[in-house]
Amino acid sequence: MTTNTIYPSLNNKTVLITGGGSGIGAALTTAFVRQGATVAFIDIDTLASEQLIESLRTENSDHRVEFHRCDIRDIASLQTTIADINAALGPITALVNNAANDDRHDWRDVTPEYWDERMAINLRPQFFTIQAVAPAMIDAGGGSIINFGSVSWQKAQGYMPGYTTAKAAVHGLSRTMARDLGEANIRVNTVVPGAVITQRQLDNWIGPDDEAQIQSQQCLKKRLLPEHLAPMALFLAADESAGCTAQEFIVDGGVV
Fold first, then answer.
1. Which of 7, 114, 159, 163 is catalytic?
2. Angle between helices 230-237 and 23-34 in degrees, nearest 10
């Protein structure tokens, strides 16, 4: 699936995507690159990220896309990486906070250390990435921040309380930062994916019976793919969404 919509305002815009090397993140990276944006993405998976870079450069050698390896749990390293990207590519005026980890876990087995680690991946970096990006975005006259949530907490999904709690908090983060940054013409919104079928999901949790159950809950009887999320992110990063902030945009095939 590719989008036929071209947003001129994304051409040459500097975009930062966290977790941009595989799964939903790779679809986001690909979509922004094809819009002519200057894209930097952060990921911990070097192999997948380098393969994506090679594929995009083979598709069009004029594409400007960079991979920066970083563990987003290390906030000092994360913010240093963002400073380097700002210095090299110009001010980041679109941020996509996509990186996450939805490993399943039984509430009985959760320790304080594991709980903190879930927050350290799924919530804390979203705030500190915003904190690092916002000053240059303010100086540039505005921008768009897109935080990725999850439909899991809205549908009361079990077996991952650390993840669902973090993702429930993401929309609160979006709304409070939309208020704090609105006077600087910075929009902050949440994209809420449904049960997106990535290779990781298929490898770890979703079999044919699971997928049939997922589609039985959706209004649209189709497999929800990473490529279905990218058009929403493009719209929210583009000038065409200039009046949208502090909102949730759900892409779940019609579940909640």
1. 163
2. 50
